[in-house]
Each structure stands twice: as C-alpha cells, then as structure tokens.
Design brief:
The two termini are 41 Å apart. 72% of the residues lie in helices and 0% in strands. It contains 25 helices and no strands. Among the domains are: 1-87, no CATH class; 91-337, no CATH class. It is mostly helical and 486 residues long. It has helices at residues 2-20, 34-51, 56-60, 62-70, 77-86, 91-109, 111-123, 127-142, 147-165, 174-191, 200-212, 219-245, 258-264, 269-286, 288-295, 310-327, 333-337, 342-359, 362-369, 371-375, 378-393, 398-406, 413-422, 434-440, 447-480. It is globular and about 75 Å long.
C-alpha cells in the first residue's frame, strides 16, 4: 500500500520537476519545452504502471488529457487532442479486439480443450511426454489468444491429468504436479510470442515500429521472425521442468485422454463455426502480404493520403471474422462482453505515449543520449536489452515493461525485438505475468519452487533471446529490409 501512495505522488511530481528544472529537455531545437513535458508524462506513466498506483488502463488514458493540455505536439489544443485520440483508434487495437472475440468463442465452445487433448493424445501421456504435451498444446493455443486466457483454460486440464496420475499408489505428485502447472504458465507466456495477436506486448511492439520507425511489420513476417523462437524455447522449458518434475514421476503409468475426448463428443455447429472463422482468419492473416496488393485498388479511401497497410488488412480480417463468428452463433454476446476491454485502453495509451514522444521531439533528445549504447556491439545491445527487460518484468507487468523499454532503447529493429520477446520471458515471480499468478494459485506451486525453476529459465531465456536475436532476427530483418532506426 505504501508503494501505491508513493507512486501516486511521484507521478505528478516527476512531471512538475521535468517542467521546472532547467535541462537539455528544454533545449531541443525547434521544440521549446515540449520534450520536457513529454518526458514528464512518460515518467508519470512509468511510475504509475510500475507501482500499480491506479488501474493500468487509467494510466493509459493520461496522454488523452495531458498531451493537448501541455501542447506536446505543438499544433494547438484541438489538433493535439485529435492526434492523441487517433492513437486510441489504431488498427492494431481492432486487430487485438477481433482476436479476443475469436478467443472468447474458442473458450465458450470448448474448442481449446479439444485442441489440447488431441495434442496430448498425439504426443503421449507417459509423464515425460505428458509434460511436453502440455507445453506444446498450451503454446499452440497461446499463439492465437491471450496468454492470460490460455492459462485460465489450460490449468483445469493440467489439474485433471495430474489428479488422474495421483490415483496411482504414488499419491500426491508434488514435483511433477508443480512442473506440469508451471509448464502451463511458461508455455502461455512463450506461445504468445509467436504471433502479433498472441499477447498485448506484440501489438505494442508492432505499433511502435509503425509509429516511430515507419516499419510496417506484416502478420506473416512477424511469424517468420518470432515463431521459431517458440519452437526453440519449448524444449528448453521442458528440460528445465523435467529435471524438477521427474523426482516423483518414476514408475508412473501413462494415463489416457480418450475418456475426456469421448466426453466432448462430436463438434457441434457452434464449435465448427468458431473453428471455421478462426481458420479463415488465420489463413487471411498469413496470406495478407500477397492478397493486400490485389485488394488495395478496390478499397475506398476514408481520408486523403490513405494507404492500405498491413495493420489495416489484419484489423479488417480480425473484425470481420469476429463479427461473422458472432452473427453465425459461434460466440455469444455474453462471452464478448466478458472480454477484458481495459486491455484495449492500455494498448491505446501505449500508442499515444509513443506518438507523443515522437511528436514532441523527445525522441531526438533520447537518441542523442543513447549514442554510447548504440555504438556498442550489437550482441551487447541485445543482451543488455533482454536482461534489463526480463529483470524489470519480474516486478512489473509485461505491458508496462515493454512500454518503458521500447522508448529508451536504441531504435534498431533487432534490439527492440529482443526486448519485446524478453518482456514475455519472466518465469520467476507470480507478479511477472498473469499466467504466473494464475498457476501460483493452483496449490501445486510454492513460491520457492517457482523462484528456483523460474530463475533457471530466466537465465536460459536471456541467453536464448540474445543468441536468437543476433542470428535469426538479424538475418530476417536484413532480408526484409527491416533494420531501420536512427
């Protein structure tokens, strides 16, 4: 509670200090005091996000009020208000909304459970394979719906399978049960890295690239960049967890998931509708870079200078798929209303923050003061970005972490990508990510267990992200002309 009140007071105080204290923030050519105002608001938001002084979506609304009030863009109150509001109408918000509607349909109709059980049956349910199967199934689902929703869906499945194993004479499986539940949390975080809609940090990253670096990262190029990391990290997670879980798994007989699959019965009409809408959306997202140029000439221009970008295509596909799913009975209005709408405000606030930093020319000042780090070898930049992000995300939400890190790191694509991936790679503390907290409440995972296993995975993730970013992401960025930056 003390931290909350400290954060509430520190936020406005930081803004006041930035405005009142003479510094280089007041000396950026042609910008006046606008960089100081933007820096003050950014520090205010960081203080409130990191201390959770108020709900995170409330903090996200600060630019909507403060950008026009402080004249951050320098175009007058009305035009500044329009620019601040525009960030909350970004195409990436609609993309994420459409993805959440489809995810709500999967949850409501039980499609996620069917997918998970089929993966488990394919990989086997001996303890060693069961653990791997939970990781693979959870990661596969988390690529397409939020990591929080995935964890909520998969924890009951994991608990049911562990309890089936506990019916054997061995009794309660403290180690294997803990490893399996931790696997759900870890795979929920790791799987979300794989696609642009997997977790909010990915949308923030893509929106930052578009706003600050004029890089339009399409759905398929994003998957080419990020999905292999999921495939590489799951075996690493399995190795770490199995070393812990095998202690009481020796001699356990495999369990069968046939009964659970039989209980689901055949796919009903609503479930088939969700599957069809989801499959069509995924296909159109993946093929977007090929189809968009063919469709662009027939798209009316809503405003002068409009160009059909990747985010417009992906957002349109997401919303049409979501609306079709609702209209055809795949998802109910009740399920849609349960969607965490505050996440959309958080994303809008993230985009508004990046827009204000750019529009105020604070980015020019930041770039000048990061020249030393930017001059370091690329692998050092990526290691520093990843390690700092993982460390910060242990104590703050991954969305808060990525909002802070993207705005202070050198604007090189691979460095920013390493940080964005690293934001989903804290495994040591319940506060690190929502899946960590959900699994912590299962009763199978103690805090010392989560910290010991999670710290080992944190170190492995930092090394893996650094190597992966300096090799694969660097190669993809060069091939696609994405390096950009200043």
């Amino acid at each position: 509670m003390r931290a909350v009140w400290i954060g509430r007071i520190a936020g406005p105080l930081l803004l006041a200090l930035c405005l009142a204290v003479p510094s280089g923030l007041h000396g950026v050519e042609g910008a006046g005091s606008r960089p100081a105002a933007a820096a003050g608001v950014a520090l205010w938001m960081a203080a409130w996000w990191l201390t959770e002084a108020v709900p995170i979506w409330v903090t996200a609304l600060l630019p909507l009020v403060l950008w026009p009030l402080l004249g951050v863009y320098g175009h007058g109150t009305v035009q500044d208000a329009r620019l601040a509001t525009g960030a909350f109408l970004d195409g990436y918000l609609l993309l994420f909304l459409g993805g959440m509607i489809l995810g709500a349909g999967m949850e409501e109709r039980g499609l996620h459970r069917r997918i998970a059980l089929h993966v488990l049956r394919a990989l086997g349910t001996a303890p060693r394979r069961l653990l791997l199967g939970m990781l693979v199934a959870t990661a596969a689902i988390s690529m397409w719906i939020s990591n929080t929703a995935t964890a909520v869906m998969m924890v009951p499945i994991a608990l049911a399978l562990v309890r089936r194993l506990e019916e054997q004479p061995t009794g309660r499986l403290v180690h294997f049960g803990g490893a399996t539940l931790l696997g759900v949390a870890w795979a929920s975080n790791l799987g979300g890295i794989g696609t642009k809609i997997g977790t909010g940090t990915n949308s923030i990253f893509a929106g930052f690239l578009a706003e600050r670096m004029n890089l339009d990262l399409g759905f398929l190029p994003y998957m080419v960049m990020a999905t292999p990391f999921v495939a590489l990290s799951i075996p690493v997670a399995w190795f770490v967890l199995w070393r812990f879980g095998r202690r009481d798994a020796a001699g356990l007989r495999p369990v069968s998931v046939r009964e659970e699959l039989a209980a689901l019965g055949r796919m009903g009409r609503a479930e088939r509708t969700v599957a069809a809408c989801f499959g069509a959306a995924a296909l159109l997202w993946v093929c977007g870079d090929f189809l968009r140029p063919l469709v662009a000439p027939y798209v009316p221009s809503p405003w002068e200078g409009f160009k059909l970008q990747g985010k417009h295509w992906e957002a349109s596909v997401a919303m049409l798929a979501g609306l079709a799913c609702w209209a055809l009975g795949g998802v109910s209005l009740r399920a849609i209303l349960r969607i965490p709408w505050s996440v959309l405000l958080l994303l809008g606030g993230s985009f508004a923050l990046a827009s204000g930093i750019e529009g105020s020319r604070l980015s020019v000042w930041m770039t000048a003061h990061l020249e030393t780090l930017a001059a370091a070898p690329l692998v050092v930049q990526m290691f520093g970005a990843t390690a700092a992000t993982v460390l910060l995300s242990a104590f703050a939400s991954n969305t808060a972490t990525v909002n802070v890190m993207l705005n202070v790191l050198p604007q090189r694509f691979t460095v920013l990508a390493a940080s964005a991936i690293g934001a989903s790679c804290d495994f040591a503390l319940p506060a690190g990510t929502p899946p960590n907290a959900i699994v912590f409440g299962s009763g199978y995972v103690s805090l010392p267990t989560m910290m010991r296993a999670g710290f080992a995975m944190d170190l492995a993730a930092i090394a893996l992200v650094t190597i992966y970013a300096s090799t694969w992401i660097e190669a993809v960025a060069s091939a696609l002309g994405l390096q950009g930056g200043v």
